[in-house]
Amino acid sequence: MSVSGLEEIIRIAAKGDGVTASGRHVPGTAPGDLVAADGTITRGPHHIDPPCRLFGQCGGCELQQVDDTGLADMVKGRVVHAARAQGMEPARVAPTHLSPPRSRRRASLRAVNGGGGRALIGFHAAGSHRVVDLRECHVLAPDLFTISGRLRNYLSKRKGKFSAEIDLTLIDQGVDCTIRNLPVEGLEQTEDLLDFCRDTALARLSLDQGFGAETFWEPEPVTVTLGGVAVPFPQGAFLQATQDGEDALTGAVRGWLGDCRAVADLFAGLGTFTFALPPHIPVLAAEAARDAVLACKAAASRHRRPVEAVHRDLFRNPLQPAELARFDGVVLDPPRAGARSQVEQLAASGVAKIAYVSCNPVSWSRDGALLAAAGYRLAEVRPVGQFRWSTHVELASLFLKDGE
Ligand SMILES: C[S@@+](CC[C@H](N)C(=O)[O-])C[C@H]1O[C@@H](n2cnc3c(N)ncnc32)[C@H](O)[C@@H]1O
């Protein structure tokens, strides 16, 4: 719409810019803003003051100027647009689930020496390698934010230059931390680091000096509880970004497949969907990361769940229609690239219900079009914004074989 030379921002593009009906991209805007020819922006109803003082410098968030309605519309719009681009019209679009502020339970940070011996820890600055010190954060779960501050204090005492990468994940026992590229040499440094682990009650600390991560501290074996089942948590294992995002995705899948006789969970990871299903349903959980398969298997056996966890590369060796014949439900949650070769086999199968969970609407819709061409209809999509204030979009979807 053009009001006396002003153009209205009608949507947020995949990279975060606002876009007008004429296709003009304007960074830093929200849907409903009006943009003049000289670039002056008049705020619309969805443009808010960013809650964080670091917004715009820190690389952790991209869209804090957009209110919740605008964010939810963006997440839904990306999913529906991707489906339509492949000729699919979802029969139902469930309300978008947005994770609340301060709920992110995993983050990758960088720590470097600042001036005056002070360490800086934070996300990369937007569009650069500079680290913006995380003095405030509205996305990280409070326990992760607290640990980031304690790490800053600890690292500030270290002498010598460093540039380390730090992965933090919130699990059952507290914070699981992996630090890469931080030399720990000699007795004094080792004891200092042990004191840090003890004082902060870290659940686990792993160090990776370029030769793979090794456990430095783990007072008790770490686990993550999935669907009420405590699963051993291997270093670097995949976990949905927020607990409530996981609940939204698993709730959708349980609602769709909860009455199945037998389910295959493909790209199963530790068993997020496997263990979310009703406990009496036999599940085949297939996954390529060997340590995740072992963790899933151990948890299933301890909890006497009818789960067969198998190590399998589903890109090279997808489940074939004959193997799929014993399942009336399949859930798949592949990496960003999608699951073309596995979906080709699913399309050729007779599986009645397919729940496809995705972190990439583009690869999902391409794969979905293969199912649609084989007689599956897109019965429902559930857009999910786990990465609040970012352009990262997730979804759960249900494909039904015609006649179901
Ligand atoms: C998005 S994660 C989902 C994991 C799990 N469904 C969850 O929700 O926690 C994708 C999973 O696919 C696995 N994966 C990646 N490539 C694979 C392949 N070629 N074959 C089987 N699994 C693969 C990864 O190890 C990861 O566990």
UniProtKB/TrEMBL annotation:
<feature type="binding site">
    <location>
        <position position="267"/>
    </location>
    <ligand>
        <name>S-adenosyl-L-methionine</name>
    </ligand>
</feature>
<dbReference type="InterPro" id="IPR029063">
    <property type="entry name" value="SAM-dependent_MTases_sf"/>
</dbReference>
<protein>
    <submittedName>
        <fullName>Class I SAM-dependent RNA methyltransferase</fullName>
        <ecNumber>2.1.1.-</ecNumber>
    </submittedName>
</protein>
<feature type="active site">
    <location>
        <position position="359"/>
    </location>
</feature>
<keyword id="KW-0949">S-adenosyl-L-methionine</keyword>
<dbReference type="GO" id="GO:0008168">
    <property type="term" value="F:methyltransferase activity"/>
</dbReference>
<keyword id="KW-0808">Transferase</keyword>
<feature type="binding site">
    <location>
        <position position="240"/>
    </location>
    <ligand>
        <name>S-adenosyl-L-methionine</name>
    </ligand>
</feature>
<dbReference type="InterPro" id="IPR030390">
    <property type="entry name" value="MeTrfase_TrmA_AS"/>
</dbReference>
<dbReference type="InterPro" id="IPR010280">
    <property type="entry name" value="U5_MeTrfase_fam"/>
</dbReference>
<dbReference type="Pfam" id="PF05958">
    <property type="entry name" value="tRNA_U5-meth_tr"/>
</dbReference>
<dbReference type="GO" id="GO:0032259">
    <property type="term" value="P:methylation"/>
</dbReference>
<feature type="active site" description="Nucleophile">
    <location>
        <position position="359"/>
    </location>
</feature>
<keyword id="KW-0489">Methyltransferase</keyword>
<feature type="binding site">
    <location>
        <position position="287"/>
    </location>
    <ligand>
        <name>S-adenosyl-L-methionine</name>
    </ligand>
</feature>
<comment type="similarity">
    <text>Belongs to the class I-like SAM-binding methyltransferase superfamily. RNA M5U methyltransferase family.</text>
</comment>
<feature type="binding site">
    <location>
        <position position="333"/>
    </location>
    <ligand>
        <name>S-adenosyl-L-methionine</name>
    </ligand>
</feature>
